[in-house]
Design goal:
The complex is a heterodimer.
Chain A: E1 2-4, E2 9-17, H1 19-22, E3 32-33, H2 44-63, E4 72-76, H3 83-92, E5 96-98, H4 105-118, E6 124-131, H5 133-140, E7 156-157, E8 160-167, E9 173-179, H6 194-213, E10 222-225, H7 229-244, E11 251-253, H8 254-258, E12 270-271, H9 275-289, E13 295-303, H10 307-311, E14 318-327
Parallel strand pairs in A: 2-3, 4-5, 4-6, 7-12, 10-11, 10-13
Antiparallel strand pairs in A: 1-9, 2-8, 2-9, 6-8, 9-14, 13-14
Helix pairs in contact in A: 2-3, 6-7
Chain B: H1 3-13, H2 19-47, H3 52-73, H4 76-83, H5 85-88, H6 91-104, H7 110-117, H8 123-142
Helix pairs in contact in B: 2-3, 3-6, 6-7
Classes of the chains: A alpha/beta, B mainly alpha.
């Protein structure tokens, strides 16, 4: 299913990150960073909440608006019952839709907000996407200090929150269309190999998007997937060629960009809800505003992993949502 | 595409773990742990005039303390990540598993946090330790003649 938009624009964005991201390649582009993972709070979950609050606060300052001037807030994170987003929202005070689509949350939230703006139901919206390395490790894996040995091909959850303000007011970045992805399960059970879990979902949504819009890959200057990592990126390239006969070019993966994978202890790159938007709202929007990129397809990919189901030896399903951005003058 | 065919693509690009290297590191570090343990037993029995059996208990207490202490200082997880089974199999691994869980859940209260979660990782070690001790006891009683 693909939606077309004519009047939805990204006006501003803000990012707050943790120490690892702050040492990555885009360190200068983030609005705020913290030196330690607690962010001055008492627990990892509270730290993630703080990141969301900070990010929204910075965003509201940038667009010079108060919270009662924003119609809706759509956001999500990885934690059970979306605690980070829900607790943050109690301070933010904007009507909230909390959504969960694992790491595909960022593009799904953009899509939902765009749909409502296009339908004139709302005038503007704030979308947030957050993740925290240690709160995710605690929930999905082992206690953080245990640091149990990991496979070398795993990925490293990004810490931070990326927020973005969408509205009817014209700006240089237009949201052009969006495609909802389907849940796909290719039988991967390895919880460390998230790239392999998510690659088929990314391939499906890219193919669906191109079919629905009658486009070829040449249309886009860049296709950016969410958090496949170095391994997942290679798997996607081969799988999409064999299954959908698409030769991926102008393609990159934000997991491979957000960290310096050679020199940082991040295994095969980043992951987590914040991974794609942290790259998209900083590096990518900068490039689009400077005219270096015109048409970009963002494909956030999410592994719908649940420890209970994994312990029952079921494979991990995945989902991906695509959103197309256009730089206009 | 069939799941089997997809799994072939996955296997093709997923790097295999350096098992031999890991085993070698675990062997060396684990060996050093053994040497350290024995050294402690010798020291305790020599200086405190203890029997080897009593000195072993003190050695275990020392290693457990060090495991917990280093976990609390925040660098033991990095050592475990490097040495893997070399530090997990000895008693230090057990101490580390309990202490890391306790640290993780300390904000959730004494009973509901630390009490309920401290054995999250180490609980299965105890259960299967007891079960295997029981089985071995039976084996010894019936096969090896007590």
């Amino acid at each position: 299913m693909t939606f077309k938009y004519n009047n939805v624009y990204i006006n501003s964005a803000s990012t707050v990150v943790g120490p690892y991201e702050a040492k990555g390649p885009f360190s200068k582009l983030y609005d705020k960073n913290y030196d330690d993972l607690y962010f001055g709070e008492k627990s990892w979950e509270q730290a993630e909440t703080k990141a969301i609050n900070d990010s929204v606060e910075i965003l509201l300052k940038k667009i010079n608006k108060k919270n009662n001037e924003i119609d809706i807030h759509i956001g999500g994170d990885l934690l059970n019952q979306l605690v980070a987003t829900n607790y943050a929202s109690s301070k933010i005070g904007i009507p909230l839709i909390g959504i969960y689509s694992a790491c595909a949350t960022s593009t799904l939230s953009l899509m939902l907000a765009s749909n409502m703006i296009e339908a004139n139901q709302i005038k503007n919206a704030i979308v947030t996407s957050s993740s925290h390395n240690n709160s995710a490790e605690k929930q999905f894996r082992n206690p953080v200090e245990y640091g149990g040995p990991k496979k070398g091909y795993t990925t490293f959850t990004t810490t931070g929150c990326a927020s973005c303000y969408l509205s009817l007011e014209k700006s240089n970045i237009k949201i052009e269309s969006a495609t909802i992805g389907s849940v796909i399960d290719m039988g991967v059970t390895d919880v460390f190999n998230m790239g392999a879990v998510m690659a088929p979902a990314a391939a499906k949504v890219i193919s669906d998007h191109l079919k629905d819009t009658n486009r070829t890959l040449d249309y886009y200057d860049l296709i950016l997937t969410g958090d496949l990592g170095i391994v997942g990126k290679m798997i996607l390239k081969e799988y999409i060629k064999k299954e959908y006969n698409i030769n991926l070019k102008n393609y990159d993966d934000s997991a491979c960009m957000i960290f310096d994978t050679d020199n940082q202890p991040v295994y095969m790159g980043g992951s987590g809800v914040a991974c794609l938007p942290l790259v998209a709202y900083t590096h990518l929007l900068d490039k689009m505003k400077k005219g270096k990129l015109k048409k970009v397809l963002l494909v956030a990919t999410g592994a719908l992993m649940n420890t209970t189901m994994c312990n029952q030896h079921l494979s991990i399903p995945s989902i991906a949502h695509a959103i197309s951005l256009e730089a206009i003058k | 595409m069939e799941k089997k065919e997809y799994n072939k693509i996955v296997d093709k690009y997923t790097p295999s773990e350096p098992k031999l290297k890991n085993a070698f590191i675990a062997f060396i570090i684990g060996g050093f742990m053994g040497v350290l343990g024995n050294f402690l037993v010798d020291i305790y029995s020599y200086y405190f005039n203890l029997s080897t059996k009593d000195a072993s208990v003190f050695m275990i207490i020392t290693l457990i303390f060090l495991g917990c202490f280093f976990t609390c200082l925040g660098f033991f997880d990095k050592w475990v990540n490097f040495a893997k089974c070399g530090l997990i199999i000895p008693i230090t691994g057990f101490a580390h598993a309990m202490m890391s869980a306790a640290l993780e859940y300390r904000k959730e209260g004494l009973v509901t946090g630390i009490g309920a979660n401290m054995f999250k990782l180490a609980g299965s070690v105890i259960i299967f330790g007891v079960v295997s001790a029981y089985l071995f006891g039976l084996l010894r009683l019936f096969v090896m003649g007590g």
